[in-house]
Design brief:
The protein is α/β, with parallel strands linked by helices and about 400 residues long. The protein has helices spanning about 5, 10-25, 35-50, 105-120, 145-150, 150-155, 210-225, 265-285, 305-320, 340-345, 360-370, 370-375, 385-405; strands at about 50-55, 60-65, 70-80, 130-135, 160-170, 175, 180-185, 185-195, 200, 235-245, 250, 255-260, 295-300, 305, 325-330, 350-355. It folds into two domains: about 5-185 and about 300-405, 3-Layer(aba) Sandwich (Aminopeptidase), CATH 3.40.630.10; about 185-300, 2-Layer Sandwich (Alpha-Beta Plaits), CATH 3.30.70. Bound molecules: zinc ion (2 copies).
Length: about 400
């Protein structure tokens, strides 16, 4: 029997309890940085499994299981829900008005709790330290940073490797891994440009920030189309443009809200530099009386999987689940704040995707070529991972990945 199978012998008897935990979390979703009930449930369970438990970064919880000599593995789950009104009609649908686990973080919490429990029960089979980390507020991009700012790196043993997973609209029963960038870096940027207000009939008395902002919006389009190598990925979106109140008043400022996505940190820097250069250049050309202001918010780092870690974890998945269950993950344009945790320790990581969609439904949609139209994605009010085999795959993935490091070699 493999070491993974040995540790997983307890899974069958724990699954009923894990499904209850999942449904309980799904019924009681909590918004970012308000994960008080979830945090308490996690802390109590970790303590009952024998972990030493700390609260880090507000509602963040970390459990450490020191089990002799050997490597240290940190596995991470996020806990927050979204301001979405659930429309799934599930018997265990959200009971909180306007709040829903629409990104599947309840799956992540339950799966990591299950793995933490089985690794504790099966501790005779492995050696090292296992850390189960439950972070708040992934959806705001600030939860992992809150834990880092609260001294995470000094409060827990330094891991050799950090692992994480996300449930996605892939068939349940499948895990998907990839080396290199799997999720984009995401930046939101508020740009304020200044003009000189005047009466709408007297444009010669003004520096018109509406014309200035319009010019900036158009010129920004050249960053991707003219400055970025064809085939490289970058997105620059102006999601909001606000100026003025009335047709006959020239306002004195305009505010643009930009969203930037990239898979490469050097390219990201080039894009951000180009935005600054273009905005400043357009302001100078317009005769703007004050320097523009730039304010970043909702920033997500790049998620770029380490090749060595990913190969080791993928091999563990293939050996445990069989090759057919392990797919190559395609790059997602979505973003995550997961990588701030390994980056705080300066250690490598891998982050894999966990299938959550009913396999028959998925296969039928795939045969029609309508997966994107017919399968509700994360953040949809209809997002509804099937409980099984999603949960048991999520538990097994965490156990198999951790034991790739903690098991005897
Ligand atoms: Zn999400
Ligand atoms: Zn998510």
């Amino acid at each position: 029997m493999s070491i993974v199978d040995t540790v997983l012998t307890g899974l069958d008897s724990e699954l009923a309890g894990l499904r209850d935990t999942y449904r309980q979390l799904h019924r009681h979703p909590e918004l970012s940085f308000q994960e008080h009930g979830t945090s308490q449930l996690v802390a109590e369970k970790l303590a009952s499994f024998g972990y030493s438990v700390q609260h880090i970064g507000g509602t963040g919880v970390v459990g450490v299981l020191a089990n002799g000599e050997g490597p240290t593995v940190l596995s991470r789950a996020d806990m927050d829900a979204l301001p979405v009104t659930e429309a799934t009609g599930l018997p265990y649908a959200s009971t909180v008005e306007g709040v829903m686990h629409a990104c599947g973080h309840d799956v992540h919490v339950t799966a990591l709790l299950g793995a933490a429990q089985l690794l504790a029960q099966g501790r005779d089979a492995w050696s090292g330290t296992f850390i189960a980390l439950f972070q708040p507020a992934e959806e705001l991009g600030g939860g992992s940073q809150a834990m880092v700012d609260d001294g995470l790196a000094a409060k827990v043993p330094r891991p050799d490797v950090v692992l994480g997973q996300h449930v996605m609209p892939l068939p349940a029963g499948v895990v998907a891994t990839a080396t290199g960038p799997v999720l984009s870096a995401g930046d939101s940027l508020k740009v304020t440009v200044h003009g000189k207000g005047s009466h709408g009939s007297m444009p010669h008395m003004s520096v018109d920030p509406v014309v200035l902002a319009a010019s900036i919006v158009l010129k920004l389009q050249t960053i991707v189309s003219r400055e970025t190598k064809p085939g490289e990925f970058a997105v620059v979106t102006v999601g909001a443009l606000n100026a003025g109140t009335k047709s006959n008043i020239i306002p004195d400022r305009a505010v643009l809200l930009l969203n930037i996505r990239s898979y490469d940190n050097k390219l990201r820097t080039r894009v951000l530099d180009a935005i600054e250069r273009i905005v400043k250049g357009e302001c100078a050309a317009a005769g703007s009386p004050r320097e523009p202001e730039f304010e970043f918010y909702d920033q997500f780092p790049l998620t770029s999987n380490d090749a060595g870690v990913t190969e080791k974890v993928t091999a563990a998945f293939t050996s445990h689940f069989g090759g057919a269950a392990v797919q190559h993950a395609s790059r997602q344009t979505a973003s995550e704040d997961f990588s701030r945790i390994p980056d705080a320790f300066g250690v490598p990581y891998t982050y894999w995707l966990l299938g959550g969609c009913d396999p028959q439904t998925y296969r039928a949609a795939a045969a029609r070529g309508t997966v994107e139209q017919d399968i509700p994605a994360n953040h949809s009010p209809f997002f509804a991972p099937v409980v099984e085999p999603t949960l048991s795959m999520g538990v097994q993935s965490h156990v198999a990945a951790a034991l790739a490091y903690l098991g005897p070699n």
